[in-house]
Amino acid sequence: MFEIGISLREARLRQGLDFPELEQTTKIRGKYLRALEDEQFEVLPSATYVKGFLRSYSECLGLDGELYVEEYNSRYVIGEEEAPFRARRDSAAHRQHRRVESRVVLLAIAGIVGAMLLVIAAWKFGGGDPGKTAIPNLGRTQAVASGIGSSRRPVAAHLRVTAARGDSRLEVREGGPTGRLLFGGTILKGETRVYVRQRLWLLVGSPGDLRFRLNGKVHHPAVRDASVALVATGKALWAPTGGT
Length: 244
Fold this sequence. Notes:
Blueprint: H1 4-14, H2 19-26, H3 30-38, H4 47-60, H5 65-76, H6 90-126, H7 138-145, E1 157-163, E2 168-174, E3 181-187, E4 192-197, E5 199-204, E6 210-214, E7 217-219, E8 228-233, E9 237-238
Antiparallel strand pairs: 1-4, 1-6, 2-3, 2-5, 5-8, 6-7, 8-9
Helix pairs in contact: 1-3, 4-5, 6-7
């Protein structure tokens, strides 16, 4: 028996990971990841969600997801029926959701009406030709009123480094060779380390003994030296010229 939440938190802190980064990688909301670490499983919709999120989160941290699900089942699941944790709150939650949707629709309508009134006022009081009056982008107005943003964050590098064939010296930094140190030492055979950043810089002592998996795809960097520097982004893993 082991403490599920404490084990998850320690694995995350060892790798220097934050909830926003893990939320982007696992597609699980940060409040649910925090609830798993605090073992506040009643925050999640049901036991099925708990087990699915628990498996995804632990595997993202390089842990055995099935082991954590089994530990959860042995301690928290009683019988074959898995009643949702928030069954008593379903009606209230549904009403609250409908109220939020109504407010968003009203805000969008108000934004459109406001834009139309501005067009009419500009034509009426400016004495201009309505055909020459600049009409605001109503689609953008509606998007702003609805709280919908258009910017997208670049894809982060979700890198898993496994010592598949033997031990190896490993140094991992955020950004570049002078960035924040995430790990420096020896990765032992069979050990896996997971890092999630926009850009990672690695100094590898024995690249042939390691296996690299970037965003779910195995990569084999074209290197010939015994010691090599590597750069990982959300799109590629390569050995830069000059090791920078």
